[in-house]
């Protein structure tokens, strides 16, 4: 079967709705997995039904009627009988049911028994052969395509859909790892015979999903290893002395962890046979920027060009200021390119350092074959087009990606096998831990008063972060930056100087406001999460995060890292209007934990597999059936991949991953 339109019942309108769910081919229907299941396999007589039990009954419809209420709503009521008794069935606002269910029909109904007007009743029961008497699948839906529709179309077409499915794993491996056959797995995931078979099917399909990602990383790494460095970087005695002198001149001592990471990066940069492709992880404030600077300095000393790309103008400006300050006596040409600050790239000498936002991507002058070292800060903040601007480069530069978001080991094993990973796992010495508090409603006023006193007493500054720029009609309780600025300026802090920045303010004006804050002309900066990465103002020691439940834990940890960079004790206050216990539990966890990796692991386990890492690394794919927190599954997939690599040299990897892995696709990954 080559096209969805060949399936009876799928016309142009249905096709359009399927496309909204990324279902574009008959095979996609098979891989549109159920999100959950309801077990209606327990069939009983009417006189045996129990309250709160999921059951299927079969009987004769002895009465069906639409009941219209005074407020314009309507109720559908049916009475069904078998040889043991009668039971009421109730639906709400589904008048079309009178066309499908008529008195005299013999039908099966499935649902949960509850008390309605003191009688055992089934509310909103399913009916018909595709929805009763079995474990039924509940699918991700879209307007006009319900789970009922998916159940019917897939159960009718399942044999035709499975005809084109071929086994992707060698039979010896299926036996060795006790996996279910692929066709049987796809059949069972949609039409489960029993819970045991369903679990086996899930294991097989989830293993394959993880394996496809691991294969992709493996192929990317193999392709990358073919690349010979564009520039042969070296550490001569003179260069080594200059680098050591620069490190000695720093106002702080590098941590052991920074020393280790720097050695790993320098080893890669001076490798004459292979281009560096390394990810540098480090918690907020761990000192990644100085490592990037030293890598750029080594490249400069080899008469070669470095480019550091940051996701925001705020961060690019800050990197530029830091580089200029630390390298001020080194006679190094350092340039800044942003949307609001244009430069002629022809003027950048071969041994320069360019710090830029994504503005560099849109410059007409082609830098692609001039760059020896490319550093991308917070890569997941960029779109695919922005990350892949070097794709047509004949010789790839050394690449260093930096992230302040600690990535759980299971994610690294699954998705980042193509990268070498360095981790700065200690914070600079003498840094005070940020005290974090979840503030109840009745203490918010006191918190504001304490903050005002603290600002006047110590001269410190504060951030107040809101999720939205403007007031949201649909989520009126969620704080907006503009609303809070008006409220706090007039009613809470009339004696302090407040500033406001958000994404709709022109970048030139944002820079001015940030500069005012840096120069201590403002006491409090009201902002959106635009400051999540990059803002480093040592005098700011207080941050309030409004509507904190609206943020992922990783984002909250990043925002908390905007303070705690100076000599003063720093504080993070979490405000929320939510009463949701799960949300409160997450905030309580953040209150007690300051280790970024622990926070990321907790976020991964407490969220669903499809949503978890979208909040941590937006560039990572979501999963349909597997989970990044399933360590056993990830280990199993790794074992299978190792077996394939070691023992099946002719194995066609495209059976599992359709990725076209080429040198041109490397940078974007």
Descriptive report:
Helix 6 (182-190) packs across helix 7 (195-224) and helix 7 packs across helix 20 (631-647). The chain folds into four domains: 1-37 and 134-165, no CATH class; 42-133, OB fold (Dihydrolipoamide Acetyltransferase, E2P); 237-424, Rossmann fold (3-Layer(aba) Sandwich); 435-593, P-loop containing nucleotide triphosphate hydrolases (Rossmann fold, 3-Layer(aba) Sandwich). It is 35% helix and 19% strand. Mean pLDDT is 88; it is low at 382-387, 608-619 and 659-669. Strand 13 (371-377), helix 12 (384-387) and strand 14 form a beta-alpha-beta unit. It has 669 residues and is of the alpha/beta class. The strands form four sheets. A seven-stranded parallel sheet has the order 11-12-10-13-14-9-15, covered by helices on one side. The longest helix has 30 residues, at 195-224.
Could you give a short description of this structure?
Helix content is 35%, strand content 19%. It has 669 residues and is α/β, with parallel strands linked by helices.
Question: Overall mean pLDDT score?
Answer: 88
Helix content: 25-40%
Q: State the low-pLDDT regions, or none.
A: 382-387, 608-619, 659-669
Largest sheet: spatial strand order = 11-12-10-13-14-9-15
CATH topology type of the largest domain? Rossmann fold
Q: Based on helices, strands and strand pairing, what is the structural class?
A: alpha/beta
How would you sum up the major sheet?
Answer: 7 strands, parallel
How many separate domains?
4
CATH class of the largest domain: Alpha Beta
Q: Quick one: CATH superfamily of the largest domain? A: P-loop containing nucleotide triphosphate hydrolases
Work out the radius of gyration. 30 Å
């Amino acid at each position: 079967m080559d096209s969805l339109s060949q399936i009876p019942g799928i016309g142009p309108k249905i096709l359009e709705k399927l496309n909204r769910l990324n279902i574009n081919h008959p095979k996609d229907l098979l891989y549109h997995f159920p999100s959950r299941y309801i077990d209606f396999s327990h069939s009983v007589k009417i006189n045996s039904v129990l309250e709160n039990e999921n059951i299927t009954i079969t009987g004769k419809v002895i009465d069906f009627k639409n009941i219209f209420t005074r407020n314009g709503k309507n109720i559908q009521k049916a009475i069904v009988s078998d040889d043991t008794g009668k039971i009421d069935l109730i639906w709400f606002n589904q008048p079309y049911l009178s066309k499908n269910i008529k008195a005299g029909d013999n039908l099966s109904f499935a649902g949960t028994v509850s008390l309605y007007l003191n009688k055992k009743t089934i509310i909103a029961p399913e009916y018909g052969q595709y929805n009763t008497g079995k474990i039924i699948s509940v699918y991700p839906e879209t307007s006009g395509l319900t789970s009922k529709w998916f159940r019917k179309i897939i159960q009718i077409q399942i044999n035709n859909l499975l005809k084109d499915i071929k086994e992707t794993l060698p039979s010896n491996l299926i036996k060795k790892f006790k996996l279910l056959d692929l066709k049987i797995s796809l059949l069972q995931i949609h039409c489960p015979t029993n819970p045991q078979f369903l679990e086996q099917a899930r294991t097989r399909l989830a293993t394959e999903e993880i394996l496809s990602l691991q294969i992709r990383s493996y192929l990317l790494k193999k392709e990358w290893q073919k690349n010979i460095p564009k520039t042969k970087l070296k550490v001569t005695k003179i260069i080594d002395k200059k680098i050591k002198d620069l490190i000695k001149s720093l106002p702080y001592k590098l941590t052991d962890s920074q020393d280790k990471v720097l050695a790993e990066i320098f080893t890669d940069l001076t490798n004459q046979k292979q281009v560096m492709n390394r990810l540098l992880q480090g918690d907020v404030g761990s000192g990644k920027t100085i490592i990037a600077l030293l890598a750029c300095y080594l490249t400069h000393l080899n008469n070669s060009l470095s480019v550091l790309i940051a996701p925001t103008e705020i961060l690019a400006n800050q990197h530029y200021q830091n580089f200029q300050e630390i390298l001020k006596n080194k006679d190094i040409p350092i340039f800044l390119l942003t949307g609001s600050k244009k430069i002629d790239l022809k003027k950048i000498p071969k041994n320069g350092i360019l710090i830029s936002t994504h503005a560099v991507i849109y410059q007409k002058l082609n830098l692609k074959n001039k760059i020896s070292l490319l550093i991308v800060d917070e890569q997941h903040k960029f779109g695919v087009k922005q990350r892949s601007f070097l794709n047509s480069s004949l010789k790839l530069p050394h690449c260093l990606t930096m992230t302040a978001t600690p990535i759980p080991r299971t994610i690294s094993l699954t998705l980042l096998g193509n990268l070498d990973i360095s981790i700065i796992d200690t914070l600079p010495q003498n840094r005070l831990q940020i005290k974090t508090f979840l503030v109840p409603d009745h203490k918010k006023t006191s918190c504001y008063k304490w903050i005002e006193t603290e600002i006047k007493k110590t001269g410190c500054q504060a951030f107040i972060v809101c999720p939205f720029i403007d007031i949201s009609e649909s989520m009126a309780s969620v704080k907006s930056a503009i609303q809070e600025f008006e409220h706090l300026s007039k009613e809470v802090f009339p004696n302090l100087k407040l500033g406001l920045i958000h994404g709709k303010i022109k970048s030139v004006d944002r820079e001015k406001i940030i500069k005012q804050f840096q120069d201590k002309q403002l006491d409090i900066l009201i902002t959106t999460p635009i400051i999540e990465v990059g803002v480093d103002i040592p005098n700011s020691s207080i941050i309030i995060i409004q509507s904190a439940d609206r943020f992922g834990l990783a984002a909250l940890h990043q925002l908390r890292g905007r303070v705690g960079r100076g000599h003063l004790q720093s504080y993070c206050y979490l405000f929320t209007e939510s009463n949701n216990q799960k949300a409160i539990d997450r905030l309580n966890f953040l209150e007690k934990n300051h280790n970024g990796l622990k926070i990321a692991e907790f976020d991964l386990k407490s969220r669903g597999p499809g949503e978890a890492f979208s909040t941590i690394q937006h560039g990572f794919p979501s999963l349909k059936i597997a989970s990044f927190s399933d360590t056993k599954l990830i280990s199993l997939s790794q074992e299978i991949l190792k077996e394939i690599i070691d023992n099946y040299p002719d194995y066609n990897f495209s059976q599992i991953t359709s990725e076209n892995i080429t040198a041109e696709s490397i940078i974007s990954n």
